[in-house]
Amino acid sequence: MVKFYESSFSYDYPFPAVSLAYFLRYPNPYAKHVLSTDVIDRRFDPDSQRLYTTRLHLKRSKLPSAVLRLLPKGILGSSSDTGQSYILEQSVVDAREGWMTTETKNLEWTGILSVLEKQSYRRPANPPISDGSNDDRTHTRYGTTEVTTSTTFVSRFGQGGLRTAKKKVGVNSPSIGSAADAPEDDSPKRGFFTSWSTSSLQRTIEAIGMRRTREALVKSKDGMNVVLGRLRSGGLVEVLEGMRRDREAMYGPEGPWKRAWKQGNGIEDDE
Fold this sequence. Notes:
By secondary structure, this protein is of the alpha+beta class. It has helices spanning 15-23, 65-68, 159-172, 186-251, 256-264; strands spanning 2-11, 34-45, 50-60, 84-94, 99-106, 114-122, 145-154.
């Protein structure tokens, strides 16, 4: 089963600011669940003048409780209790033409729900005409950036079991001469109800994922606006200072890694 979700909006900031803020958006007050961000590959193509970046985000995340209630106990093992998941992000920036595309996907629990999000950031082809006022941020002296988001949800939960069952039926199916010995229509009925319950469960999981993504997109936009506001008010220095404040608010002055090291070595924090 597959579900799609699309949305469009715009930032009241020019494309250079938005593309920079995208790479500086973590941490922010609306993304306290993001534990770390690492660049695992970055290259600049001198011919196309495009920047290619691959990053890995570690987030504090669990499967939604509504999804966990639908799954058999023990199916996830201990992975459901780790509270962390990895997100792979790939992006391409063309500063000359004024566009950026991003693609993110989850690396955990893909057998239950795979989420692929694609975003397109572009400066408008026909920017609005300024009316000369000084207090409207949407005017051309500030510029705008159009954003389109497309998200695909795919749940394959239960499909492995169905494929295995079908394979067994194909290998061990009775010959024509012994067909009368098998219960009539028993396997087709089981196959129908198993397929129906599996597809219904997949649709439910995808619907829950879609609802959670809609909520996350709102917070993502709010977080970007915080970073953009800092960039406008104090430039890169204010953005970095804001990141430091957010990091301290989330993990304390020592940061997340020293705290993790202390916990791993059984060292208690000083009172």
